[in-house]
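SEQUENCE WITH STRUCTURE:
===
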Amino acid sequence: MRNAELVHYAFMAAAIVLEVAANVFVKYSDGFRRRTAGALGIFCILASFTSLSQAVRGIDLSVAYALWGGMGIVLTAFAGRALFRQRLGRVGWLGVCAIVSGVLLLELS
């Protein structure tokens, strides 16, 4: 991988991490009753979109969006389990596997 490609994938990784952080902060905000957590959630999603906009300069849009959205969902599910003791059932885990498979297929295409 060339340095330019690495930069775009670094922006993609940042966009994914920021999206997950935004989701966690929104949960912690308790319906935006906790304004600091809510504001951090809004900041993180804006930063995530900014990073995504830089990532798509070097990654195909279909691949970038699938990677961002899919991995954001998967990692948010893991964060929900770790931070909030939320559990997925069998069908939920099947959905996670389907998302990961779809992202991998798009990446390999």
Summary: The radius of gyration is 15 Å. Helices lie at 3-28, 35-55, 61-84, 90-108.
